[in-house]
Amino acid sequence: MQEITKDTVIADVLKLDVADRAVPLLQSIGMHCLGCVMASRETLEEACLSHGMDVNDLIAKISALQDQ
Fold first, then answer.
1. Residue 29 covered by a domain
2. Which one of 9, 24, 63, 64 has the minimum C-beta count within 10 Å?
3. Residue 16 in domain
4. What are residue 9's DSSP bridge partners?
5. pLDDT tens digits, one per residue of 18-60
6. Phi/psi at 39 (nearest 5 deg)?
């Protein structure tokens, strides 16, 4: 299991085994452009700042998907 941190790049989340469940989660908070250029270099922290979400909350949700 890969550790998810605030410095994890969105594109790396999309490479995880849980990507099929992480995509709807990310889209539900307004991250709709998961295939765009920004996804390949934007960290979870940066994305959360621009979408008004707490990065620690998002990390916990993604990590919970990995634990399922």
1. yes
2. 24
3. yes
4. 43
5. 889 999 988 888 887 787 777 788 899 998 998 899 999 999 9
6. -65, -25
Helix (H) or strand (E) segment spanning residue 64: helix 55-67
Identify the bridge partners of residue 20 per DSSP, sorted by sequence position.
none
Q: How many domains does the chain have?
A: 1
40, part of any domain: yes
* Measured distance CA(8)–CA(13) in Å, rounded: 7
Q: What is the pTM of this model?
A: 0.84
Domain range for residue 16? Answer: 10-67
Q: Is residue 5 part of a domain?
A: no
